[in-house]
Amino acid sequence: MLLFSMCGKKNEKEESVTPVITQEESEQNIAPLEKETVNSQNFDNEENKEVDEVEKYSNHAIKNMLLGTWKAIRQHGDMNSDWAEGGECYISLRIEEKNDIFLYHFTSHLRTMSDTLSITHYDHEIVLTFEGIEWAYQDENVTDSPKPSNITATFNPSEEHFVIQNDGNAMNDYRKLGEGCEKYLFFEKEYPVALEFSEEDQQLIEGYSILHAESGDINNDQKLDYVLVLQSDIVDEDGPMPFSYNRKVVLVEQTNATPPYRIMATNDRLIECSQCGGAGVGDPFQGITIKDGYFSIEQLFGACTKDFFVVTFKYEKGSFLLNSIGKNTGYCNQVENGEIKTSSKRKKVQDFGKIEFKDFDFGNIYKMFKN
């Protein structure tokens, strides 16, 4: 029995809130490209060759990354019982979306509370504003204004963490969260601690580490399954892009046997390499969505003009079959009334026939849309 480790711990009660494109849904349900991701000023400026890290991610991907439970981690020294649940330094923030509104749920050893969360692109940063949290302390000699009632954090999508500056300095003394044990509070997303596989299954994923994970019931057995995106531990010097990492998608089911997890299927041709998204994107992988026996893999490609793909699979009679492919294109050089022109196309089962998850090759996707 071997152990395939993952960082943190994901809340198994959480459900994905982003719609999956099913065979019955219309083209309007294909998630549109956001204006920021197709703006020619961001990606096609000859005087600014270096693309800002934030602009490599669509708003859709950022939303998927933020949804879930985040926990404050210790930056200086080892984690101890003070940072565990119930400890003096423990802070948890669960982020969810309901009716197109972002909500957060704050938990510490002193209190629990919930309110709204706003997400803003500001000065090449992603700023999170947690409304309704009054600062613990503010020096009255600095300002006579009431204590602020919201707390901001900066989110780094490439590192998958966000940071709150909790304490000020001698010139501007304040403390935002009374429970905060460090000046800068780093929050990391929680994922399952470990998945135990048989030695045979472990060999299927040898040389890879987990890049991303989503949980949900993908085979309709009323148990929590996982869709994992793995990344190779070493770069592929002979791959389509120099010094990029390869990706493998793994479907995992929970069993009543020992070990408790089993790999149902793998595919190393579904997600392109870590630098295969093009000059304006870099990493094409955008997210995973699980809903009602369907799961979708989302990828973004392009420089100025961009293509956003949603590839959806459905569990049917013991197999995971390709159900639909959505393609949404934003044309950065075609602007009408201040809006970038977009187009949507969709392929269904009747267009491509029966294709199992393990056999799908994303490299053929543009050929599929030529007809």
Q: What's the SSE blueprint?
A:
Layout: E1 2-5, H1 35-38, H2 40-43, H3 59-66, E2 68-73, E3 91-98, E4 101-108, E5 112-122, E6 125-131, E7 137-138, E8 150-156, E9 161-165, E10 174-175, E11 184-189, E12 194-197, H4 199-204, E13 208-216, E14 225-232, E15 247-254, E16 261-267, E17 285-291, E18 294-302, E19 306-316, E20 319-336, E21 339-348, H5 349-352, H6 365-368
Antiparallel strand pairs: 1-12, 2-3, 2-11, 3-4, 4-5, 5-6, 6-8, 7-10, 8-9, 9-11, 13-14, 14-15, 15-16, 17-18, 18-19, 19-20, 20-21
Task: Walk me through the structure.
The strands form five sheets. The protein has an eight-stranded antiparallel beta barrel. A five-stranded antiparallel sheet has the order 17-18-19-20-21. 8% of the residues lie in helices and 42% in strands. A hairpin with a 2-residue loop joins strand 5 and strand 6. The chain is mainly beta. The chain has a domain at 66-189: Lipocalin (Beta Barrel). The chain is built from six helices and 21 strands. The chain starts with a strand and ends with a helix. The model is unreliable at 6-51 (pLDDT under 50).
